[in-house]
Amino acid sequence: MTDRKNSQGQTGGLRERKRRETLRRITEAGLKLFSTKGFEATTLDAIAAEAGISRRTFFHYFKSKDDILLSMQTGLGDSLTAALAGKAPGQRPLPALRAAVFELVAAYAPDDLLAIDRLMLSSQAVQSRKQATYLQDEALIFAALCEHWPEENPATLRLAALLCVGITRVAMEAWRRDGNRRPLADYVQDYFEALAGL
Amino acid sequence: MTDRKNSQGQTGGLRERKRRETLRRITEAGLKLFSTKGFEATTLDAIAAEAGISRRTFFHYFKSKDDILLSMQTGLGDSLTAALAGKAPGQRPLPALRAAVFELVAAYAPDDLLAIDRLMLSSQAVQSRKQATYLQDEALIFAALCEHWPEENPATLRLAALLCVGITRVAMEAWRRDGNRRPLADYVQDYFEALAGL
DNA sequence: TCCTATAATTGCACTCAGTGCAATTTAATA
DNA sequence: TATTAAATTGCACTGAGTGCAATTATAGGA
User: Fold this and answer.
1) What is the pLDDT of residue B111?
2) Contact, B97 vs B164, CB < 8 A?
3) For residue B114, what pLDDT band results from cuts at 50, 70 and 90?
4) Straight-line distance from CA A124 to C1' D17, in Å?
5) Measured in angstroms, what separates residue A44's CA from nucleotide D28's C1'?
6) Which residues of A make CB contacts under 8 Å with B?
7) What average pLDDT does the segment B119-127 reach?
8) Sign of the four-CA dihedral A83, A89, A94, A96
């Protein structure tokens, strides 16, 4: 009836459009205040005021203050399983994962993510929860591996998931530590090669 | 002067003895209440009352409610670096670590730790912080490895630390999942062997 | 256009974790 | 015993997060 563009789930009605807009305003307000005042020193009242909503409404969009930052995570588990789903021919698990990681890492915008990352360091709780997501990523990838290689030893697949997430993690650490002068893919390469020297 | 047995830092005065006793009472009270009422439902007032102290005093012993549980962690990083310090002859890093892990895992009391572990699952925040400690363990072990094998490629040592903590972690998961009918060392063995099949 | 079901926003009152401060008690020691 | 330092406590406060009920805005059909 009304002329809403519901085709790709993109616009879909005034209600949803407003909701997305409010969500955007909250995260924007949060990011702005976190980076100026610091994470801990920023109160929810301040965020709500900056976003033009009430304090109570904030909790209809996020379950906690932490979640503003956490919601901006890349979602390594989802990305990798997706990249893995398309192409699992006759390859071994680890090389397939390796390829998927490189695919991901190729398209990576340094600056935005780095800023978020730095903010996350300022809160113990946020940092912990961020690091805990690595373990969830592992679980997701392990499940995907089990589907693609059902006859493989589960312990092997478990280790493959562990290594792939772990290598990505330490590569990003090294990359950030060096002030990203070399591309992230180089660090990933380094660690995958170091695997042979064990 | 006074007859305090300060030799091994064991007793050392009324003050310290009382302090240790209070600490013990708090953790005991916490554990008791957590396991009956649940972690979230247990208030600090209840813990303080049960331990016979004031609410305010609690914070002279723990920085947060979480820390009661977190303080009972094994400290994989410390244990492993200690076990590693004694014996690093001409071995390669990973085999040396492997031996150290087996040494640790041999002396492991199932029941107590398992109860703590189950309690930690009931709080998102505690669980996250627990998982985050694995990364700190990695860092500790990596530092120790760098000292013992200064001429080795750091990336290799980084991966060794990652693997050793990771394998211990997934082994404990599998062990717990199976209701620990087999000894923990068996699971560690499984994963170390699966490493070859990658 | 009007009407109704449903979703979003809000205010209010509440619980609980955690902190700062200042007073008081208790142990250590000269 | 007198002095010093640590431990305990109460009080008042901030801020996160929740439950509830009232209000407002949107959706979609009559």
Assistant:
1) 74
2) yes
3) confident
4) 18
5) 36
6) 92-94, 124-125, 127-129, 131-132, 135, 153, 155-156, 158-160, 162-163, 166-167, 170, 190-191, 193-195, 197-198
7) 94
8) negative
- Give the count of Cβ contacts less than 8 A between chain A and B: 82
d(CA B56, CA A21): 44
Using DSSP's 3-state secondary structure scheme, residue B171 falls into: helix
User: Nearest residue to C20 (CA, C1')?
Assistant: B56
pLDDT at A6: 40
pLDDT per residue as tens digits for the range A59-107: 999 999 999 999 998 889 999 999 998 876 789 999 999 999 999 998 8
CA of A60: nucleotide with nearest C1': C8
- pLDDT confidence of residue B7: 38
Question: What pLDDT, on a 0 to 100 scale, did the predictor assign at position A10?
Answer: 55
